[in-house]
Structure formats: structure tokens, C-alpha cells
Amino acid sequence: MxxxxxxxxxxxxxxxxxxxxxxxxVYRACGDCGRGxxxxxxxxxFCGGWNTGWRDAKGTGTLHSWTTVHQSxxxxxxxxxTLVLVALDDTPDVRLMGRIDGEPELEAGMxxxxxxxxxxxxxxxxxWRPADD
Amino acid sequence: xxxxxxxxxxxxxxxxxxxxQTEFSRNSGRSVLSLATEASLKALADxxxxxxxxxxxxxxxxxTVTPYTLAASLGATNLTYWADTxxxxxxxxxMMGLAMGAVLSGQAKTVLAFRSLNGRSESRLGSxxxxxxxxxxxxxxxxxxxxxxxxxxxxxxxxxxxxRRHMIEYGTKAEHLGAVAMACRAAANQTPHAQMRDxxxxxxxxxxxxxxxxxxxxxxxxxxxxxACAVVITSAERARDLPRLPVLIRAVAGGAPPDLRPGxxxxxxxxxxxxxxxxxxxxxxLWRRAGVGPSEIDVAQLxxxxxISVILQLEAFGFCGRGExxxxxxxxxxxxxxxxxxxTGGGHMSEGYVHGMNHIVQAVRQLRGEADMQIPDxxxxxxxxxxxxxxxxxxxxxx
Lengths: 133, 399
Hints:
The complex is a heterodimer of chains A (about 130) and B (about 400).
Chain A: E1 5-6, H1 14-21, E2 26-30, E3 36-37, E4 52-56, E5 60-69, E6 81-88, E7 95-101, E8 111-118, E9 124-130
Antiparallel strand pairs in A: 2-3, 2-4, 5-6, 5-8, 6-7, 8-9
Chain B: H1 4-7, E1 14-21, H2 32-47, E2 56-60, H3 67-74, E3 81-85, H4 91-104, E4 110-118, E5 136-137, H5 155-170, H6 174-188, H7 203-208, E6 211-213, E7 216-217, E8 226-235, H8 236-239, E9 247-255, H9 278-290, E10 299-301, H10 307-316, H11 325-330, H12 347-350, H13 357-368, E11 380-385, E12 391-398
Parallel strand pairs in B: 2-3, 2-4, 10-11
Antiparallel strand pairs in B: 1-8, 1-9, 4-8, 6-7, 9-12, 11-12
């Protein structure tokens, strides 16, 4: 059984994966109030506007939380691996997931940097690692 | 905004008049429908009612048994009202609200609420379930595409991220989580039908249990179980003519967090404050609707899918301040002789995981005065559901 691949055709989220395929990290943002919207929506719940779109992100962030998975729940995701939750430097409204093999030394607030993982099935996932690595 | 104090018309107007459950086990060897039917028949017998009296059925949307299939199995052909609610463990408390709404609006007179699952032997909720075989995951408003492909698959991993954050912000420790697990286990040790009845647990046992998804260990997780629970709800007026001491539904409230995100469980990790629960907003309404506050609660059944969810709910429902849930749990408050005995049948941690429904059954037992680990003079019991992505809650009162 292979990795779970993302649905990249959804009306509200396809732009994230299309940009990733080009090596760009983007996030949904409201053009009126400026808030980040994640998970992405067409409508901004903060100001009530519809003027939302994709915005380029710097590709840097800080580590908000993490968990090291010691018991596999899917055969293609072999423990131990560590799920990292990264808050974008661009906006604290957006936090993205990443996965690091094993159990790396991590601490809250550490600087993280994006990289792009090409899946065998053709999709691209933005991933995160400590900025110092 | 609703003025909860004056607008809530349901206070003490409906009652739970019957409870039923099957054995809780690791492998029932039976269909989920068979389990639901047994629990329902026991609840009806307890209520002194027959299948012909049932005219409403409410359920959790994740149940594989539909209201009309259960009605068919029971022979309850007077069915005229049915409804689903959810998600998952949020459902049981919301079912009390659905039943109340149906009874008070005249759409049904006697409503059955149930949850049935082979949650251990057939479809383990912690496994990622049916998504495993999907070609592409997510889309269609689920937002799973941002989480599953990375390996964030289970509820436990999501709660682990929340637990870690709570530790970062408030200094919560493993021993604080352990205090929750031990309180539940101690109650189970006094409850003959609890799956962990014969398995005492010390803090050393807790700390020695293997890490599943750090910082959560095996004993931070609930017991995935096979089993079913059902309860019967009718008007308080009619309840007085039935054989059992009525347990009144004092108030019901659901709540969404201020920074609600779309999707189900995983997107909660993007909330500005991801350890702030929808339960906090439910609680604000619940206490106004009930006309009582947390200090008046004698016993509570707090939704314990993981130990951390109890810590967060202690804060959300106002039993302690934000960030103080860990020390509060470790103070001994949650035990039989503490200020707030919780999960007095062992809860999901140590009794069985019937997705919140066994908490409703246990609340009724406490207020009837017939629980195995009975809290003396219990008159008000809080029951919570959830706790993601929205919260739900009920205050029950001894009739």
C-alpha cells in the first residue's frame, strides 16, 4: 500500500498543490482584511468578503507543536516519524504540517524552512525541516 | 445572540426514563445492529415501556445502524421522528437536545437515543479507517489533503499535538495526564462491567506504558470497544408516571470556538489557540440555561477520548482557569472523594469507548443513586461530548 496522495482537484484547495508543483509555497489570504485563511476558503469569515486569493509565502516559519509517532497506523507511514506543525512567518493564521523521519531534536519556536517533496504519483507536498539543517 | 437565561425553554422539561447497555468487549462477535437492538430493548424494559411506545429515534451520524433499521429490528413501527447528529463523540449530548426538541414540539412522545459500534473488532476509530484505501484523500470540504498525506492520520496524533502545545504554554506534565487516567481506572476498578475492573494502575504503571504518539502514551488513550448504549427520553410530566426515578435534562448546549476552522478534526491545529475548545462556548450557554455553575456540579462525565481532552474540558467548563487543568487533575479532585469526581464508571479510558453514550448512561445511574461507585447525594451531573471541532454538553438533574 502506497502513501496517501492528496486530492489536488478541490475547488478551494487546488491552488495550494498547483503552486507546490512549481516549487512555490502559497497560502490563501483575504485581499480586504489581510487575514490568512487555512484551511483555505473562498469566503473570508473574518471580514465577510469574497476577495480572497493565493499569496506567495516566504517559506519560513516557526515550530508550533510536534508529535513523534511511535506506533504506525498506516503501512506506508513507518514509525518512528515526527509530525511538525509550523506557523508561517507571513501570518500566524496559517499553520502547515510537515513530516520528518525518526525523532529529531526539536524545540518550540525554532525556525523552520520549507522544502518540496515530489511524490512518486506526481503530486508535490510542501515539507518542513529545521532551518539550521 | 440568544439570551440563554430567558429563551431556553427546555429546563427540566424532559427526562431520561430508561437506560440500557450491552457488554463492553474487545470482540462482540455480533452485528452492530444486534448490539443496538439489545441495548434499546434493555432501555425500554428499564423504562417500563414497549417498542410500540417508541415514536422517535436519534443517533450519531457515524453509526452504521440507521434509525429506521433499528426500528425495523425492534418492531417499532410507530416511528414518526428521526434525526442524526454529530460529529462522532459530540453526538450523545446533542442527541439529548434533539430528543428534547422533538418531545417539546410535539413531533415525538418517546425518543430512543443510541450508539452502537464494533469499535475494536471491526472498525477501529484510531486506525484511519476507510480512508486507507482511497486513491486520493481529502477534498470536498474535508481538508484531509493537508494532513493525511503527511501521516497525520489518527485522533491520537491530533490530540498529541494539542497536548504538546498545552505543555509548551502551561507547563503541563505527564503526571498531570496520568492523574486523569488513574481517576478513571480507580472508578473502573469499582465497576463490575468496566473492562479494566480487575486492572489497578499506579502512576509508575502509567509512566511505564509505551509511547504511542508523544507526548501521549498507551494509557492516555481510551479503550476502543465493541458495545452499545441506549437511553429513552420523554417529557418530565410523563416520566412521573413511569417506574424509575426520572433524571431530568436540566439544560443542553453545544458550542463552537471563536476561531472555528472548516473541516473536521485535523484543522483544529490551525486555530489561533488550539487548546481552547468549543466546549468553553458551550459551557457559557450551558450554565446560563441550567441556572447553575460549575461549583454546583456534584459529579461529571467528561469526554475522555484521551487524557488531555479531560484537562482541556476542566478548563473549558470553568472548573479551573486556563492552563490549570493539569495541576487541578493532579490535586486529587477527580477521584471519588475529590471536589469533582469524574467518569465514575471508568469512562472511555477504563470502562469502554461507546463514543460518549456510556457517559450518558453513567450520569443517569449516578442521579438515580444506583452507580457501582456512587457519589453520595449526587443531584447535578455534567456530561460533555466531543471535544473537536465543536463541543456539546448536558446538565442532568435528579428528578
